[in-house]
Design brief:
This protein has about 500 residues and is of the alpha/beta class. The protein contains 15 helices and 19 strands. The relative contact order is 0.08. The site of FE3-S4 cluster (F3S) has 10 residues, from helix 6.
Length: about 500
């Protein structure tokens, strides 16, 4: 059978989609190639969030196409995911060696498409149509890699942590963001469907599950049918004020608030009941969805780890409003305060954009002060990138590239300095880690994660994989901790 290599760009959702495609192909008899060299099929799962991510994937495909044309003309080349969705046929027009362009609602069709192309029944396939129910198709996992079909008996899976996609799409329409156009309207899977998948994973040895979605705090507000009825996505040129109408649409939600708990908290409760599951994470929530019911869940549900990734984007209320984020700096800081009250020591990470159109020096300094005030454990900083058809791309006062870079550098220094202090403060302390496997940088050592989502590298063996272990933190590096299990696990 043909071998496939999938290269993934972008976020955890993309990683999850790639895993589901790989699992689907393995189930059909394909093998997974360890690298692009020698693979019969090469798929790039793409990201559109910033221009840089798109250019990287296009550059990669150009190189692959040149090599394939010269040396291996039968290799099948494909684009999947967000850029495939937003650019469609245009990608083949530009890169005629590409055989397949598969959109974000079509991952489950990958095997069928490849079969058709490999059998010579079809030459090129571009499939970026909407598909009702596609949110429930990302369900196959690849816990044992290529070996899944061989041999029985119980052995530890390659993965002790797993991602589970709970919803697709986003209706927030932040003015800088392309995701609502590439991933479509919010569509949520049902609670029993998600819990079933989680149970299955736990029965195979998974200890930690991360629930995934673009805006998980909006989980359950819209199910597939509602999204379909609500119809078209807002066109990028439509004024943001029209969003008020959309929000009323969301009120016809299939999952109602029960006992003051949102659908997302109801889902957390249901997943929490799974015996054998040790840890629950989720990403990404939206600050506006951080109600008291979710804060209360942190206090009540021990499997929910002390970690939250809460994208803030900016510390300036003026910029937050232009971004259409739906919260103020004060409200954001208030959520963090409540979270820290519910779970002292909780790890807080964030996403920040610098150089959003109209961002002044004063606005940027407010982001710096917010970072110092909140004391993030880590932050992903993005230089604003104009995305076509998004409202911010047409806003006046685009910030010159040099200033974006300078602000990126200044913020990075602040984030690194805070991170260093926070990580160093953990030296000498004890922490529980879940051992994930060999360290990527040094495969002779093992790596695990604390409940606060900090990576700990230690001297261990493969038999430790999947174990919850107490370690003493002996040293702090740059956003990495080093631990010694012997001291506490005698
Ligand atoms: N809700 C999703 C957001 C996906 S985009 C999630 O958190 O997974 C991830 C991050 O990319 C955003 O939080 C934002 O900080 C950044 N981003 C999105 N659009 C951008 C743009 N046009 N320019 C720069 N950064 C952007
Ligand atoms: Fe993008 Fe904002 Fe949704 S960042 S994914 S539009 S919450």
């Amino acid at each position: 059978m043909p071998s496939v290599y999938i290269k993934t760009y972008g976020c955890q959702m993309n990683e999850r989609d790639s895993e589901a495609v790989a699992a689907q192909l393995v189930a059909k008899g394909y093998t997974l190639a360890p690298s692009e060299v020698g693979a019969d099929v090469i798929l790039l799962n793409t990201c559109s969030v910033r221009d840089f991510a798109e250019q990287k994937a296009i550059g990669k495909m150009q190189n692959l196409a040149a090599d394939v044309r010269k040396n291996r003309p039968n290799v099948v080349l494909g684009f999947m995911g967000c850029m495939a969705q937003s650019r469609g046929q245009e990608l083949i027009d530009r890169l005629p060696d590409v055989d397949l362009v598969l959109g974000t609602q079509k991952f489950h069709r990958a095997a069928d498409c490849l079969d058709e192309i490999l059998a010579g029944r079809r030459d090129k396939i571009v499939d970026v149509a909407e598909e009702q129910g596609s949110e429930a198709t990302i369900r196959e996992h690849l816990l044992y890699g290529n070996a899944s079909k061989n041999g029985g008996g119980h052995r530890p899976p390659l993965q002790v942590t797993a991602f589970v996609s709970i919803m697709q799409g986003c209706n927030q329409y932040c003015t800088f963001c392309i995701v609502p156009y590439t991933r479509g309207e919010e569509r949520s899977r049902s609670i029993p469907d998600i819990v079933g998948e989680c149970r299955q994973l736990v029965s195979q040895g998974v200890k930690e599950i991360t629930l995934l979605g673009q805006i998980v705090t909006s989980y359950g507000r819209r199910r597939a049918s509602e999204a379909a009825v609500a119809g078209r996505a807002r066109s990028p040129s439509e004024p943001v004020e029209n969003l008020e109408v959309r929000r009323r649409d969301e009120d016809i939600a299939p999952y109602q608030i029960k006992d003051g708990r949102s659908a997302f908290v109801q889902l957390l409760n249901a997943v929490h009941e799974i015996d054998g599951l040790e840890r629950i994470r989720f990403t990404s929530p939206h600050p506006k969805g951080y109600g008291d019911d979710l804060i209360e869940a942190y206090a009540r549900l021990p499997k929910l780890v002390e970690s939250a990734h809460l994208p803030v984007q900016s510390g300036s209320d003026r910029v937050l409003k232009l971004m259409h984020r739906g919260y103020t700096r004060e409200r954001y800081a208030g959520i963090i305060e409540k979270l820290r009250r519910a779970r002292p020591g909780i790890g807080i990470t964030t996403d920040i954009i610098v150089g959003f159109p109209g961002e002044t020096e004063d606005d940027f300094e407010q982001t710096l002060t917010l970072a110092r005030e909140v004391q993030f454990d880590n932050a992903y900083i993005f230089k604003y990138s104009q995305r076509r058809d998004t409202p911010a791309a047409a806003m006046p006062d685009q910030v010159p590239q040099l200033i974006r870079e300078e602000r990126n550098q200044r913020l990075l220094e602040v984030i690194n300095e805070i991170g260093k202090r926070k990580y160093s403060a953990l030296v000498g302390r004890q922490a529980q880690i879940l051992v994930e496997g060999p360290s990527k940088k040094n495969p002779a050592r093992m790596t695990g994660r604390t409940r606060c989502n900090k990576i700990v590298v230690f001297d261990g063996a493969d038999r430790h994989r999947g174990q919850l272990m107490d370690v003493k933190i002996t040293r702090a590096g740059s956003f990495t901790l080093y631990g010694d299990p012997a001291i506490v696990n005698l």
